[in-house]
Amino acid sequence: MAKKKHMGANTIALNRKARYDYTIEDQYEAGIVLEGWEVKSLRDGRAQLKESYVSVYKGEVYLLGAHFSPLASASTHVNPIPTRKRKLLLHTKEISKLIGATEREGYTIVPLSLYWQRGKAKLKIALAKGKKQYDKRQSAKQRDWERQKHRILKQ
């Protein structure tokens, strides 16, 4: 599977809808606990974060709904589950901040991107608040204005 031009060399998957649907407050980098077949499929670029979300359960953070397509030739004795829950590795202080914000202040945790860093898979997650419909329209207007401004300045 060919890499897309807009993605960096280390980027595996992006969640573009997250920035459209949510206002991003804080970002965190989390390690992710993977099985062998999942690492192979990530190296092949077969990950999707579109419908995924992050949940806190018993003081641990999990990635839910992310789809890692298994390779046909990965292994014969492993039964791959493409959408299983995957544990995220964060510092205790970061986990307590996430728990406090999601329980008290009405924030949610969304995955933004999945990428390689020094041979390890990392997930960038963000503390975010949902946008209303008028906020989304305002963002689109702002984006169009920026694009138009760049066109005018080029001339």
Summary, kept brief:
This protein is an alpha+beta fold. 32% of the residues lie in helices and 35% in strands.
What gap, in angstroms, lies between the N and C termini?
A: 38 Å
Order of helices and strands: EHEHEEEEEHEEH
Radius of gyration of CA atoms, rounded to a whole number: 18 Å
Strand tally, please? Answer: 9
Biggest beta sheet attributes? 7 strands, antiparallel
Instruction: Return the structural class.
Output: alpha+beta
**Overall average pLDDT:** 84
β-strand percent reads 25-35%
Strand order of the largest sheet: 1-8-9-2-7-5-4
**Helix content, binned percent:** 25-40%
Give unreliable regions as ranges.
1-5
User: What is the approximate shape?
Assistant: globular
With helices defined by DSSP (H or I, 4 residues minimum), what is the helix count? 4
